[in-house]
Amino acid sequence: MNKIFIIGLPRTGTTSISIAMLDYGFKVAHTAYTKQAFELADVLSDSPCFCDYPELDTLFPGSKFVYLDRALADWIPSIQMLLKKMYINLEPKAGIFNPILKRSFNEAFHLYIKNNSSKQLILNEQAFNEEHLATCYRTHKSQVLEYFAHRDDLLMINMSDKESLDTLLRFLDIPHDKDAQFPHVNIGKHVSGWREYKHPNKVNALSPGKDQRKFFDYK
């Protein structure tokens, strides 16, 4: 089944675009950690989509992909705030977050590295450094553009542009008001907009299916 994958990094507008898609009739998973969540949702965003897009492209041929761009001057302080809140629970072994969430964030941001002498995982001293995060952002963007080079199934938008929702809906061939605007959520220190938003089309990230809560075998 064709899907729509939002593959921008966290704090580029993944929650806002997810909420907008709910109101256009799509079933949406903002994070998805089971096969069933992927089967149920039409639109999927955030982890693990931002790092697993090549595997998802293979699993769901004919899907469309949306990369969310954001000015580094705005994105860096926002992602710094998020990572400083989350990093303890993103520790690959001891962290309490979902393993797929931990893997996704560590692949994208290299939060934990092996100590040269003890070989134990330790917090990367550069984890919250502006230059380090800028490099992570640019690397992710270049990898996305290289992967989708010469293809017409990737759209890049910056949600601060007034025409971005119109551009997205035209890409998806959805009838709409051309003046429609994205909702603004997760502003500043507020990072729980998706959990608070009530909508019948929301898909639980841990939805169980015939394989219970099993994930795909590609990782």
UniProtKB/TrEMBL annotation:
Q: Which Pfam families match?
A: Sulfotransfer_4 (PF17784)
- TM regions (residue ranges): none
Q: Which InterPro entries match?
A: P-loop_NTPase (IPR027417), Sulfotransfer_4 (IPR040632)
Q: Which N-terminal stretch is annotated as signal sequence?
A: none
Q: What name does this protein carry?
A: Sulfotransferase family protein
